[in-house]
Structures are given as structure tokens and as C-alpha cells.
Write a structure and sequence with these properties.
- The protein starts with a helix and ends with a helix.
- α8 runs antiparallel to α11.
- The radius of gyration is 24 Å and the shape is flat.
- It has 14 helices and no strands.
Length: 295
């Protein structure tokens, strides 16, 4: 008995990631199925419910089979070595991916959220992914920027903000139909007829963008300025992201030149002044490339 008990304790650290994954999968699956509101049969009839059931079945099989469990643990070790993160970080990373996926499933695709825990789960997943990707390798210290470089960056960002917000309500003078439609969906969040941030809105665009428009309308009312403001904010943030990416890839001077070029680029200024979600694409693309390079 003591030998068997000792063997079990010796295996526990290796099986811990799988055990924790199974525990988390059970909780997240129960939330995503939302049995009280929809019922098991109707939920499993959807593709998302079926995928979640398959995921849980794989986890349960891994617990019942020692060989499968050991293989999964070995996969985690190889992934952690390849990603340059710890074994715990790898588990945290994939738990975060599971949380975001489960949060999206629990939210549904309609205007009304199916489960109120969907958004907290999604946010928790994003936080876990960021924490899990922390490198175990020591980061090199960066030289501090000179006062001239700091002043230049402030001036560039300030110029970009000014060009994107001056007379925002009247330039462009015409409010396009797409802008108006986006603003109407944003107003649904203000009225309370829509509350699903993880669903889809007008033209199948992600509803999170329309929720941002609702924030502007909540503060400034139903105005052109209110629905165009977050495009200007995203455009200005893209300038800062461009500087940061240029600094990481090359040096601070290259980052400053790239930021100054984007701040005055007429096409980017235009799309930063209209209530389209296109300007967010450049921000997240540059941010993703910079983070990928930084590791």
C-alpha cells in the first residue's frame, strides 16, 4: 500500500497539468452548454456544443489511460521548450485559449448574450494567454531614450491626434450610410436591446466595435463626433504602435520616422476620421508583429 501510494504521489507532478485541464474543462464546458437556458440536446445539436463535448471526452480519456496522460504531458514539455516558456506557462497559455473559446461559445452569436459569465471568461482567457507567454529567458535591458527623442515622440503623437480630431464632425462633411448603420447598432447597446460584446452586429462585424461606439454615444449623445471618436483614438494608437515596432525591429530613430510618416499619411488620416472599423486592423497588425518579434 505504501509503495502504491508513493508511486501515485510521484506521478502527480507529471499528471498535474492534465488533471487541472480536465477540471477546468469540466467547469468551462458546463458554463458553455448553459443547460438551464437551452437544454443539453439543443446545445449539443450545435457545432460548438459538439466540439466542446469532443474536447471533454479527450480529456477524460487521458485521465483513464496512463499512456495517453504521459503522452500529453510529454507534448506539454516539448511545447514549453519550443515556445521558450515554463511548463506551467504552457498550461496557463492553453487554459487561456480554452477560456476565450468557451467564453465565445457561451455568449452565442445573437444580440443578447446567452450566459453572463461569457465576457469575464473571455477576459480571463486573454489575461492567461498573456501570462502564459512570459518568456523564461532574461530580457536584455534597453537604453533609455534621450529627452530629444521623447519630445519628438510626444510632438508626433500630438500632431497625429490633432489631424484626426480637428473638426471631426464636419470633415468628412457627409455621414456615409455605413457610418450611420454602425452608429445605430452602437445605440442598441445604449438602449439595452443588445448586450452581447462577443457576438456579431451589422454586416456580421464583431459587436465589440459597436460597443465602443456606444461608449461615445453615452458620453456625447447621438452625434457624428461620438461615433467617429474611437476611429481617431485607434488611428492615434497606431502611430504609437508603429513607433514601438520600428524601435524593436531597428532603432528609435527609425521608429520616430515611421511614426511621423504614418501621422501625416493622408489615407490613414481619412480612415481615422470616419466611423469604420478598418483603422483598427492596422493597429492590431502592427502590434502583433511587434509582440511576435519581441517574443
Amino acid at each position: 500500500m505504501q509503495t502504491q501510494h508513493g508511486d501515485l504521489l510521484a506521478e502527480t507532478p507529471q499528471r498535474l497539468p492534465v488533471l487541472l485541464s480536465a477540471f477546468a474543462a469540466g467547469i468551462l464546458l458546463a458554463i458553455s452548454l448553459d443547460l438551464d437556458q437551452q437544454g443539453l440536446a439543443s446545445t449539443l445539436s450545435r457545432a460548438s456544443g459538439a466540439l466542446a463535448a469532443v474536447y471533454l471526452a479527450v480529456i477524460l480519456l487521458s485521465l483513464l489511460s496512463r499512456s495517453i496522460s504521459n503522452r500529453l504531458t510529454g507534448v506539454l514539455h516539448r511545447l514549453s521548450s519550443w515556445l521558450g516558456i515554463s511548463l506551467t506557462g504552457t498550461w496557463v497559455l492553453f487554459s487561456g485559449i480554452g477560456c476565450t473559446a468557451t467564453g465565445s461559445l457561451a455568449a452565442g452569436g445573437g444580440p443578447r448574450v446567452l450566459n453572463q459569465l461569457s465576457l469575464p471568461l473571455w477576459i480571463l482567457g486573454v489575461v492567461l494567454v498573456v501570462l502564459g507567454l512570459r518568456s523564461i529567458e532574461p530580457t536584455s535591458r534597453e537604453t533609455s531614450a534621450s529627452s530629444t527623442q521623447i519630445l519628438a515622440l510626444i510632438l508626433i503623437i500630438s500632431l497625429g491626434w490633432y489631424l484626426r480630431t480637428v473638426d471631426l464632425e464636419t470633415m468628412p462633411y457627409v455621414l456615409s450610410g455605413d457610418e450611420g448603420s454602425a452608429g445605430l447598432v452602437g445605440w442598441e447597446f445604449v438602449e439595452g436591446t443588445r448586450d452581447n460584446l462577443l457576438g456579431l452586429g451589422w454586416f456580421s462585424f464583431p459587436a465589440l466595435y459597436f460597443w465602443l461606439l456606444s461608449l461615445g454615444q453615452s458620453i456625447f449623445g447621438r452625434s457624428v463626433y461620438a461615433i467617429r471618436l474611437f476611429s481617431a483614438i485607434a488611428g492615434t494608437l497606431t502611430i504609437a504602435a508603429t513607433y514601438w515596432g520600428g524601435k524593436l525591429l531597428f532603432n528609435r530613430n527609425v521608429g520616430l520616422m515611421a511614426g511621423a510618416w504614418l501621422a501625416t499619411l493622408h489615407m490613414h488620416v481619412f480612415f481615422s476620421r470616419v466611423a469604420y472599423n478598418n483603422v483598427f486592423d492596422g493597429f492590431f497588425l502592427i502590434l502583433a508583429i511587434a509582440l511576435l518579434y519581441r517574443g
